[in-house]
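User: What would this chain look like folded?
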Amino acid sequence: TELDTYWDGLIYPSPREKKLPYVDKVHVFSFFSLPAARHSCPVRTCLDMASRSSARTRASVDGRRRFTCTRNLPTRRGATFLVEKAGRSRIKAYQKDGEAMAEWNGKQGRFQYVNQSSHAAKDALEGMVRCRNDLKLVKDVHGGYVVVQKDMDPHQVAVLSGGGSGHEPFAGGLVGKGMLSAAVAGDVFASPSARAVLTTLQYCDHVQSRIGTDCVPMRPGAVMIVNNYMGDRLHFGMSIAKAQAQGMQVKQIVVSEDCALPLETRNHPPGPRGLAAVALVTKVAGASAARGDNIEEVAKHAQWIVENAATVGMSASSCALPGQRQNLREVEAGAIEFGLGIHGEPGAHVARDLNGARGAVQEALAVLTGAGGLQIESGENVVVLVNGLGGLSHLELQVVAGEVLQQLGNTGAAVPARCFVGNLVTSLDTAGLSITILRAEEEILKLLDAPATPACWPFDAHTTNIESSDATSGVESEEAALWVRFSPPVQEINKLEYKEATTQDTHACQAIRTSLVGAAQALVAGESKLNALDAAAGDGDCGTTMADVAFAVLASLGVTPKNASQTSPTKELGIDLNLPQTPAALLELLAELVQEAIGGTSGALYYIGLIGALPALHPGQNAESSEKTSRTPDSSCLADALDLAVQAIMQHGCASPGDRTMLDALVGARDAAQKSISSGSDILSTLEAAAVAAQEKANQTAEMVPRVGRASYAGSRALGNPDAGASAVAVWLRGATDALKDEST
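Assistant: Here's the prediction, encoded as C-alpha cells.
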C-alpha cells in the first residue's frame, strides 16, 4: 500500500520508490534503504534546515502512530522532533528537550501582509523608497538589496551598515542625512552576499571619486557598521578586505553590546551579539561624518559607543517568518525570556512571576548594571534606549521607559540624560523589547542631538533632553518634573435657594441613594458577564467600565462593594453624594461623578442622559407662597425623567431604537413606565415594570444588527448575544428596583 496522502506534509518517500508494507494499521518503513527520501516537518526551522543542508534523515514509526525524526545537521546540533498526527489536519510537533513547540490545526495562522514570502524583503524596501524622495535602490545587485541616499555628499565619510532583513526600520530606514549614507540588506534573517556588500562600498567610492576643485578625487572613505553575527562578520569582512585591496579606505565597526549572555559564552567567538545599540552607533557616526570629521574621527566615535553601551532583550513570544503558519517557537505562558537576540533565537533564561513592567525592568537593570553589564559610577549620566522588537504596543514601551527612568533615579545608579523610545531594531513581530544603556559624554550627546532626516529617527534634542531633578528636594522635585499644577474654575453644583429642605426632599434623597447603592452593587457583581457580552462585538470592557462608575458611586456614599469579581481601584474624586439635600441637586452631582469616573462613549452618554433628565426634578413654584419647591419623585416624575434622558441621548448620541444600543433598553423602560402611570401604579410598581421591560428589550438586541458605535464594525457577527450596553441598563435598573423593594419591606 502506498503511503496515504493524508500524511503528506510529514514524512514520505519520493514517488519513484517502491510501495511500503502496511502492518497493523501502521506504516513501517526504513529510510536507510531510501536515499532519495524526502522529509518535511510542521516546525518550519526543521524544513528550512533540511533545504539548506545535506544532512541524513532517518525516521521510524511506533505503534502509537508517532513519528520520531532525527536530524544530524553539519552546522548545528541535531534536532529531535516528535511528530503526532490526529485526523487529517491536526499536527503537533515538539523537540524532545522542550525548547521548541509548534502546533498546526490546519489553519494558516495570522494573516500576513506580504505577497510572496521570498520577495518580502525586496517588496518592503521598494515600498519604503516609493514613500521617500531622498532614497534610491541600486539596480541588479546580486545577493542583496542596496539603499542609498539620492544626493550623497561626496565630501563626507560614507557611513554604511546592513544585515538581514526583518529588523526594520534598521538598516534601510535609517538611511538619510545625518545617519547612514547607504545600507545593504539580505533576505529575512539572512546576511547579504559578500558581492552585495562590495557593491555598496564600490557605489560609495564611485560617488566620492568625483573630481574636486583641485582636480584630485576626494575619496574620504567609508565606515562600515556590522552587527556581531557570524554570517554578517564573514560576508562583510570578505567584502571590506577586497575593497581595501582595491584601494578603498574602509574602517569596520563591529557592534557587540549584548550583556545578557553568560560570560563563558561571551568570551568565545563570535562573542556578544549586536543588538539595538547599532542604531545609536549609526546616529553618532552619521552625525560625526555630517559635520566633516575625517574617517578616523568617525570610526573613533562609533567605536566609543560600542565599548560604552550594554543591551538586554526580553520577550513574551518569538516571531513568525513571512509565509510561516506559526511562530518559530513558543514562550511559556505568563513568562518572558531574557537575553534573546533579534533573530527569534531563545533567550539566556526564562523569568516567571514578574511584577508587571516594574519586575521586568528590575531584572533587566540588574543585568545591565551588574558584573557583566556596564560599569557605571553613581550619578553618572547615561542615555537610555527602549527599543521595540516589532510586536509590542507603544503604550507598553512608554510604561517600560518610565519604569527605567524612575528606577535609575530611585537607586541613584545613573542619571538619565536622554531617552529614546520606539521601534528601531526589530525582530519581525516579536512581542518584546530591549533596553540599552549608554554612558553619556558631552561630545556623544551633541552627536545624538544633531539633526537627521530619516523619518524612522523621529527624535530631536528638544524632546529627548531629560531635565534632571535635585535628589535632595525629594518628592516635590519629582512631581514638578512630571506635572504642572492647574485648577480650572469649578462650577459649583446648583444650590437651589430653599429656606430649608423639606421632609419630602429628605425622604426622596434617601430613596434615590438606596436605589443607587442597589444599582451599583448589581453592576459590580455583573462585571464579568457584561465584559463577556461586550467581547462578542466590542472591546470587552463594558463590564469593567460600568463597574468603575459603580465603585465610584459606592465610595462616594461610603458603602463597601459586595460580590466584586475583581478589585477595581477607585479614583479619589472628591464628590460626596451624601451632601445634596434635594433630588435635583443629587442627580446633578451624580452626573458630575459619572463624568469624572469613566471616560469614553459610555461616560458621555450617561452624563448626557442624567443632565437631560434634570428638568423632571427641577423645582416648581408653590402656588400658595413664593417658595421654590422640588418636585417629589413619583411614578410620573420617573417616567418624565426616563423620557427626557432618552431624548437627550438620541439627540447627541445619533442613535435610534433598534440600533442595538443602551437606548433600546432605556426606551423599553420609558414606555413601560408611561404605561404604568396611566393605570395609576405607584413608584415601586412603575420601577418593576421598567426593569422587566428593560431586560426584555436587552434580550431582544441579540437579534439586532448593530448600526452605530464600535459594535457596528462587527455587523452580523454580533448576532446571538445581547448588547452589553443594553444589558447594563437592565442590570442597574433591576438592582435599583430590588433595593427599593427591600427598603420598603
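Residues 1-107, 469-475, 493-499, 621-626 have pLDDT under 50 and may be disordered. If you want, I can go into more detail on any region.
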